[in-house]
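Team,

Forwarding the record for the chain on the shared tracking sheet. I've put the sequence and predicted structure together so nobody has to dig through attachments.
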Amino acid sequence: MLGLLDKLPFKTIYVNEIDDNIAAVFSQNFNINPDVRGVREVTNEELPEHDVLIGGFSCVSFLIVSQNPKRKGIKK
């Protein structure tokens, strides 16, 4: 999976990841340093010029919820 991104016809110019540990692993794997602030703290003016902006759900939140036996998470 990691090598797949190098083959796609786009360049990642900005990454936001609030968790320092995840940001460090991302940096090691993809050679880009994520912005570790909360995404709500980032202003439009701070984003680099771009053609496409992609965002998604927080994977960590889903992982924590789904692994806690007291919570039903996304599996009901």
